[in-house]
Amino acid sequence: MTKAMRIHETGGPDVMKWENVEIADPGEGEVRIRQTAVGVNFIDTYFRDGTYPAPSMPFTPGKEGAGIVEAVGKGVSDLKEGDRVAYVGANGSYAEKVVLPAASAVPVPDGIADETAAAMMLKGMTAEYLLNRTFKVGPDTTILFHAAAGGVGLILGQWASHLGATVIGTAGSDEKCELAKANGYDHAINYSREDFVQRVAEITDGKKCDVVYDGVGKDTFEGSLDCLKRLGLMVSFGQSSGSVPPFSPAILNQKGSLFFTRPSLFNYTATRAELLDCANNLFDVVKSGAVKIEIGQTYPLSEAVQAHRDLQGRKTTGQTVLTIG
């Protein structure tokens, strides 16, 4: 028996309940992990409120965590009891213990703490594929990233700056804009009192951006397209303000033969080799000091309800972690 957050019906944060659950022995190709830290991400709220369909009902939310391998099933050769690991993608991380496919867990190197690993797997690996795979960012690249003071934003800003790009971000307050500028952004636009489309045009002398990374969705979609130069790439990778409304592909032509993609980390790390490559690139850039993982707030796992309230109320900065033990 162990404890976990359980959801019996979709809705607001209060639908999560702290309950006893049975924990199985790992089957073939699986490991059981005694967790020490769990990452909190916006995607968790999408499953909780029904935006994304739950895998089953009731269910335990959460997509990433870190801890110690407690038991291994048959056929597992690259992990053993006592290994420190982290994972992303497996459902049900809001629990004291989890059983998951060994193929989804990656060894955590020395020098990276469990809380740091749990905080950065989804957000950091998202930054990795956005910058290195969806669009190859380099010294000649100008990018715009919305929600620059959020979890992905703070990592991506540092990493993009390390790659030599010109990095523009948006945030909802002067305080968050200052935080963005302290984390790699050359320019930070306060969208609560500035027109970000106009400011991007001013900052770039009318040249606009090579790529826009938009995890906000409905509220920023049209403006994001207007921030792209001819043949630019619109990367819609989230929807914190709601889903992007249906649109005609003709608008992409009208605004300069733009490209549009709706990627996900899980498609970019579908194979074991892709997962390890993405994770190791993240570990390397963090260990080098080029990217620092700032945990803005922690909550006991049993207080995940409040963590979700704060996340959706835009009261958080950086990474949010649920701690265990």
Automatic annotation (TrEMBL):
Residues 11-322 form the Enoyl reductase (ER) domain. GO terms for cellular component: cytosol. The keyword Oxidoreductase applies. GO terms for molecular function: mRNA 3'-UTR AU-rich region binding; NADPH binding; quinone reductase (NADPH) activity. Pfam families: ADH_N, ADH_zinc_N. Keywords: NADP, Oxidoreductase. The keyword NADP applies. This is Quinone oxidoreductase. It comes from Fulvimarina endophytica.
